[in-house]
Amino acid sequence: MLLLAVTALEKMKTLPPDVWLKIGVAVGAFIIAILVFRRVMKMNKIIAGVIVFVVVTVVFFSWVYNRNEPKFLTPLVNRIAPFFPSAGSYTSKQQTAPRP
Questions:
Q1: Do residues 65 and 84 touch, judged by C-beta distance below 8 A?
Q2: What does the pLDDT read at residue 64?
Q3: Whole-model pTM?
Q4: How many other CB atoms are found less than 10 A from the CB of residue 61?
Q5: Residue ranges making up the domain that contains 54
Q6: What pLDDT does 54 receive?
Q7: Rounded CA gap, 45 and 87, in Å?
Q8: What is the dihedral of CA 86, 90, 92, 96, to 10 degrees?
Q9: Cα-based distances in Å from 42 to 31, 36, 50, 55, 78
Q10: pLDDT band at 5 (very low <50, low <70, confident <90, very high)
Q11: Is residue 1 part of a domain?
């Protein structure tokens, strides 16, 4: 029975290369995030706050425009979305004929 047991190393060898690429990208992104976080903590707090505000605002409005927000934010985005343009409304307006 011991001869038929598959080791963890043998299982890792059977993984396709794209899995290893995704793992490598995730580890690299984590390391870069830590380095950026340490650099931001050395900055002036007002400048860091402005940068964080701009990034969060851009991401949030991207979610509102494309409607690809996380599920837990859907109720909030449903209330805010009618006040802003969305990707679906633009394409539907392009399909209608202009008024004479």
A1: yes
A2: 87
A3: 0.54
A4: 13
A5: 44-83
A6: 94
A7: 35
A8: 150
A9: 17, 10, 15, 19, 38
A10: low
A11: no
Domain contains 48: yes
Q: Which residue type does 64 have?
A: V
Q: Do the domain assignments include residue 77?
A: yes
| Number of domains forming the structure of the chain | 1
What gap in Å lies between CA 71 and CA 48, rounded to an integer? 28
pLDDT digits (tens, 9 = 90+) for 19-47: 889 999 999 999 998 998 888 888 888 88
Mean pLDDT of the region 82-100: 75
Q: Does 92 reside within a domain?
A: no
The runs of H, that is alpha helices, within the chain are 8-13, 17-41, 45-66, 74-80, 87-95
d(CA 98, CA 100): 6
